[in-house]
Amino acid sequence: MPEQVEARLPPGQVLTEKFPVLSYGPTPRFDPATWDLRVAGLVEKPLRLDYRALRALPIACQVADFHCVTTWSRFDNRWEGLAVRELMKRVVLRPEAKYVIVQCDGGYTTNLTLAEFLDDGVMLAYRHDGRELEPDHGFPLRLVVPKLYGWKSAKWVREIEFSAADRRGFWEVRGYHNRGDPWREERYSFQEEAED
Ligand SMILES: Nc1nc2c(c(=O)[nH]1)N[C@H]1C(S)=C(S)[C@@H](COP(=O)(O)O)O[C@H]1N2
Ligand SMILES: [Mo]
Predict the structure, then answer these.
(1) Less Cβ crowding at N or C end of the chain, within 10 Å?
(2) 110 and 169 Cβ atoms separated by less than 8 Å
(3) Which ligand is closest in space to the CA of residue 69?
């Protein structure tokens, strides 16, 4: 393996040029007339953005590697969309807010700590590699959390809920690790027992 590849590939991962689709369940239908993104839970005032309002917000762009726990990694994904930091300029959190639960069309969920959610590079993307996101890859809006395994990058996001307590998401209750840092190879929940 070339050195530059090896340095960017977390342990146990294999590089792919393709962009596999990993979805539990069918791709939801998108209706721009009724779609919205909601920010709810422990916020001073809930926020609701319809599709036009979402796309009118400042556009962020980043290139990031993507690591799925099933062992494929895809380098240099060019994501465009709404930076979480930009979104959060419009939201006042209550002090008790410590966790984020991301809810998607189709019922998928995932959880993050507030710090993981507010970290560099976390964004709500609607374009990938210079085109609108494919529906199967999460159009109209997906989370991108480049530092964690792909299951945290929820597709078809509709609601971001701030919470005082952590609530494990769809895969986190089905045996995947609560955090999922690929560099620490945090794949499975049983690994948590050996941790802090
Ligand atoms: N709503 C939803 N988001 C999801 C999933 C899913 O099944 N449903 N799968 C996750 C997993 S396991 C991975 S690896 C990535 C894959 O993204 P992709 O299908 O665009 O490659 O999406 C994540 N987001
Ligand atoms: Mo995955």
Answers:
(1) C
(2) yes
(3) 2
Q: What is the CATH number of domain 12-18+34-195?
A: 3.90.420.10
Protein residue with least CA distance to atom 22, ligand 1: 151
Atom nearest to 69 CA in ligand 1: 14
Mutate to test the pocket of ligand 1, among 110, 139, 151, 152 (most ligand atoms within 8 A of CB): 151
Q: Which pLDDT does position 196 carry in this prediction?
A: 57
The average confidence (pLDDT) of the chain is: 97
What is the side-by-side order of every strand in the sheet holding 47-50? 47-50, 36-41, 157-163, 99-104, 109-113
Model pTM score: 0.97
Length of the chain: 196
Q: What is the C-alpha separation between 10 and 122, in angstroms, rounded?
A: 19
Instruction: Determine if ligand 1 sits within 6 Å of the CB of residue 137.
Output: yes
Do 150 and 66 contact (CB within 8 A), yes or no?
Answer: yes
Atom of ligand 1 at shortest range from CA of 149: 14
The mean pLDDT of 82-104, rounded to a whole number, is 98
